[in-house]
Amino acid sequence: MELIDFLKQTQTEIKEELIGRQADSSQALPFEDELFTEVVTSHMVEIGMTFDSTVMCHYQAKVGNANVKISGYAISEELDQLDLYISLYNDVDDITHLPDSETKKAVEHCYRFLTMTADGKLAGKVAENTEIYTFVKTIEAVFSDLDQIRIYVLTDCKVKSKQFQSREHAGKTIKLEVIDIERLYNHIQSGKPRDELVVNFTQAWGESLPCVWVPGQFEEYDYAMTVIPGEALRYLYDKYGQRILEANVRSFLSQTGKVNKGIRDTLRNEPDKFMAFNNGIVIVADEVSLERDSEGTPGISWLKGMQIVNGGQTTASMFFTKKKYPDTNLSMVRVPAKIIVLKKSNPVQEENLISDIARYANSQNAIRQSDLAANTPFHISIEKLALSTFCPDGTSRWFYERAAGSYRVMLEREGKTKAGIDALKKAIPTKRKITKTDLAKFMCSWLKKPDVASLGGQKSFAAFMDIVAPSDGTNPFDPQPSDYKAIIAQAIIFKETVRLTRPMFEAFKANVNTYTVACLAYHYADEINLNEIWNNQSISSGLEKMLKEYAINIDVLLKASAGGKMISEWAKKPACWEYIKKHASKVELPPNTREF
C-alpha cells in the first residue's frame, strides 16, 4: 500500500465511521476533525505510541491574548506521563503539504494550554461542570510529578518538520512532535527514514564496543553482534530522545506494564543479571567504523545513521529508571545487541528491508490482550451464535467482531459489489456491530462491575476474561443461544443509555453510563425481562424513564464522591462503586414489568 492509498483509506474510515454514528442513535455525532483525532490516536495506541486511555476532549478558547487549544489527551495510569493532541484536519484527498508555520502555530496553542494550566491560570476560565475543567485540575495537581510530557500535532497533510526543539517549563521537559499522514503511514508499515545520527562510542565511553563482525555474507547488509553498556543506552536516549527510536514501532509508554516493570525491577535489584534476562536490541546503521585493540579483537568505534528498531522499551527504561531512582547502578548493566549495517543499494529496497526488520523484530509484542483472547472458546462461541442467530424479523442480525477488522472483511468478501455491500449493511448495520472490548464493557456493567468496565480498553478486557474464563481452573462460561440473546439485550440497554444521556450531561458520560446500567442491574436484574428486550430489539418507555432518573442521580453522586479527583479515574476504583451502591436512590419499577 502506497502513502496515497493509506490517506484515502484513512479518509474513507473517517467518513464511514461518521455515517455509522449517524445511523446509530446511541453514538455521539462528532465533527470530522474529532473523528480524525479518534482514528489517528487509535492507530497510535495500536502501534504503541501512546496510552490505551486516550480521551477526546476538544477545547478551544482565547484567554487574554493567548489562543489555547486541545483535541485530546492520554495520561498514564500512575499519572506520571502525559500526552496532549491537537489536530489540523483538512479533509484532503491527495498528498498535500502543510507549511511548518501551521504546525508551529498549533504547537504553540497546545503548549499555552499546558503551561497556563500548570501555572493555575486556566481553571478559573473553564466551566466547572465540564470534563475539561477536571482535566485542567488534574494537570495542576500532577504536573510536578510528571516524568514525560509530549505534545503531538496530528494532521492528514504532509509536513517537512516532524519534530521541534523541546521546551522547558517549571523544570519539566516538553517534547513537541508532529504525526502527519506520512509518519503515521511509516509507523504502521513499521518502517521509518533514519536521521543521519553519528554515535561515537570511543569518544563517549573511551572505548569501542567489542564485537563479532560478519562481513560480506549477505548481499544487502553486513552483520555484527555486540554488547552495549546500560549507561551508554541511557546516554543515547537522553541525548537523542525519540530520534534514535524512529524506526521502532513503539515509543516508551510506562513502567507499569508487565514487560517494562520487569526491566525496571531488574535494573534496580539485579543489574548483573540484566544481560541474562533481556532479549537484547536490534540496531540498523548506514555505516560502521571498526578498529582493533592490541590483541586484534575488532570493535565498533562509531555508527552512522544508527536507529534502534527493536528494544525501544529497553533503551528508554534505562533513562527513566535512572531518572526516577538515581541510586540505580547501570555500570553493571550490559545489553546484547544485533547490529545490521546496510549496504548502499536501491533506496526503496533499503527502506523495505528496514520495514521488514522492524516488523519481524517487534512481532512478539504487537498482539494486544484482546487479540490474544480472540481464539478462546468463549469468543468463538459468541461469534458462532452471532452468525447463526437472526433477530425476530428473521432477516437482520448482530455482528460480533471477534477478530479486529472482520466486519469490514465480511462486507467486502460477502458483499462483493456496492449494491451487495449496501444490502449487507442494511441487514447487519454498524450499530449492531460489537467488538470484544464493547462486549466486556456491556457485560461488566450488567454484572454490576462498573469499576471494572471503567478501566477501559485492554485492562477492562483482561479483567472481563478472568470472569468468563477464570484462570483458577473453574469452569469457563459456555454461552448458549438463550445466553447470547440476553447478552444482546444487555448491549441494547447500554446503547440506549448512551443515547439517552448524550444530551443530558456535559462531561463524564462514559462513567455515568456504565454506573447507570450497573445500578439498574443491582436493583432489578432479576425482574427485567431481557428476552422481551431481545424480541423487541429495543427498550420500553418505562425503562427509558428509569434510566434517565438513575443517570441524573449517578451524575450527582460521582461528582460528590470524587473529592476533587478526576472522575474518570475515581470511577475505576472499587470504593467508588461501593459508595454509589450505598447512596444511589432506587428508582421505582413500573407496575407492568412486561413492558420490558
Number of separate helices: 24
- Shape by Cα distribution: globular
For the sheet with most strands, the description reads: 8 strands, mixed
Mean pLDDT: 83
List the uncertain runs: 249-254, 363-367
Give the termini separation: 49 Å
Task: Summarize the helices and strands and which ones pair or pack.
Blueprint: H1 3-23, H2 32-46, E1 55-63, E2 66-75, E3 81-88, H3 100-118, H4 131-142, E4 148-155, E5 163-169, E6 172-179, H5 181-188, E7 198-200, H6 201-205, E8 209-214, E9 221-229, H7 230-240, H8 258-269, H9 274-277, E10 281-285, E11 287-292, E12 298-304, E13 307-310, H10 312-324, E14 334-342, H11 347-361, H12 369-372, H13 377-388, E15 399-401, H14 406-415, H15 418-427, E16 433-435, H16 436-446, H17 450-453, H18 457-468, H19 481-501, H20 509-524, H21 530-536, H22 541-562, H23 567-570, H24 574-583
Parallel strand pairs: 3-4, 4-6, 10-14, 15-16
Antiparallel strand pairs: 1-2, 2-3, 5-6, 7-12, 8-9, 8-12, 9-14, 10-13, 11-12
